[in-house]
Specification:
Layout: H1 2-24, H2 37-55, H3 66-79, H4 81-84, H5 113-122, H6 138-150, H7 156-162
Helix pairs in contact: 2-5, 3-6, 5-6
């Protein structure tokens, strides 16, 4: 009984302390001020575990059709390159102000297509990564995933050719 009271009291103090911390507004949530190491570690773990748990149920549907990969390149050029860059695109006006900093997908080896599909479809809260599943159907998202998988070995010329509409 005594142990239960100590545990309950400790939890109550923790909840009250967390509430007071949040109420104080002392934590700077601005994108131009980085998280503390502890907060960043918690957010990273939460993101990785959440995406992993949801992505593992997705069936891989990579496409090899050059027409669909070109469609993925056009979607990528119009929706993604401003934040995630592309072959021959090394900076953008929006990228420096984003935190967390988005990965440069032109240099990422995308091994897990399920994860990429889930992120593109559902987005990531508080990261500026939108849920493209609200505007793109699953087939278009697979086109983007298939394109992104090929991008790290792509020349800037090939990228410009594929994404010519944008």
């Amino acid at each position: 009984m005594k142990i239960s009271l100590v545990i309950a009291g400790t939890l109550a103090v923790g909840v009250i302390g967390a509430g007071l911390f949040i109420e104080s507004g002392s934590y700077n949530i601005g994108a131009d001020d980085h998280h503390t190491k502890i907060v960043l570690a918690v957010i990273d773990q939460l993101r990785e575990r959440s995406i992993g748990a949801r992505a593992r149920t997705i069936d891989l549907r990579y496409v090899e059709d050059p027409v669909r990969i070109a469609a993925g390149a056009e979607h990528y050029a119009s929706l993604c390159a401003g934040c995630h860059l592309a072959p021959g695109v090394t900076k953008s006006a929006i990228r420096p102000g984003l935190y967390p900093h988005p990965p440069n997908l032109a240099q990422e080896d995308l091994r897990d297509g399920r994860r990429a599909f889930w992120i593109i479809k559902h987005g990531i809260k508080m990261s500026a990564m939108p849920a493209w599943g609200k505007t793109l159907d699953d087939a278009a998202i697979w086109d983007v995933v298939s394109f992104v998988r090929k991008m790290p070995v792509m020349t800037p010329e090939t990228y410009r050719e594929l994404s010519q509409g944008h």
